[in-house]
Amino acid sequence: MTAALLLALALVAPVSAGDAALYDRLVAGVAAAYDSARGGFVARDGLVSEAAVELALLHGRERGDAAWTQRGLATLDWTIGLLDSVGGGFYTRARDKSRETTAFDKMTVPNARRLEVLLLAHRVTGDARWRRAAARVVDYGERVLLDGRGGFVHGQVGDRQLVPESNGAMLRAWLLWGALDGDARRRDFARRSFDRVWSACWSGLPGLVRRGVFGEIGSAPLLTDQIEMGRAYAWGAHLGGRAVDLERARAVADTMLRAYADPRGGLRTRAVPNRKGVVRAAPREASENARAARFLAELAAVTGEGRYREAARALVAAFARDLGRPMGLAGADWALALRALHAPDLPARPEWREVPARPAPGAGGGR
């Protein structure tokens, strides 16, 4: 049996009637939250739901539903209006672009998530305009956010310390961009970044942490850092084929499930031990748990280990009461997690090709 076939079998799990019904309810709630007057899948505060756009494109492709695809594309069209035509990069919200409140801290995470859905739109439609828009985000990333030593900074302004959440989101998008034409330079930069983030941020039981300029832990260890960087390591193993990235994805997941566990079920937003080593109480955020469930489901697919799929199911069960209520756009992350439990929407591994380095200016001849 080939490795490709084994992976295909690991990616698929049967869909129960309960999961199908829950998925349909969540999808219906997302559809009801679509508001063309605000830009589409855009919340009242002006924040685009990239998860809803992703869901619309995937659901539309899967069901052959052009209306869903069009909703996702219309929201992306509106979102492109948030691109800074001068300095590049996305503003987070429309109000950040106004003359009175122009923001200069165009953050890495929204740019990464929008790059990811632009590339998905290109894959779904084959329309080159989505790739061109993605190229503008990549250009901003290379000029402003990328650190040549490996990794990305947290935003346009601020210090240069590595933040796991930002790096996880951008490294996934960076791998997707490289996979378009199999440019191994993108893969190799991602690998260098994976190594640097691990060296700088991994701290054992709390997991990945944010450090200050002098190496001190700058804030409480956060669940979002484990989720986003853990997913990036799983994607790195899947797309790049490097065993150490899979080992790190497992380590992040195992630590996350231990250090952030809430006695009521689900995961806490942060893990801050007291002097006795007991983790202090912290709230649970439904949206973070939805993304954690997706990470675990994707890791189950990549590793073939059912324990991660069961852990993802436990997170869904822990929020059964919330999921029974109308969730609107917030339901998109949960719908994507349910999809990942059965057939994760992981991109295919490309045939990576080595690209010759460009000669230095003035090299290769002449006087």
From TrEMBL:
Q: Does the keyword Signal apply?
A: yes
Q: What is this protein called?
A: Glycosyl hydrolase
The alphabetized UniProt keywords are:
Signal
GO annotation terms (biological process): carbohydrate metabolic process
Q: Point out the signal peptide segment.
A: 1-17
Q: Which InterPro entries match?
A: 6-hairpin_glycosidase_sf (IPR008928), 6hp_glycosidase-like_sf (IPR012341), Ssp411 (IPR024705)
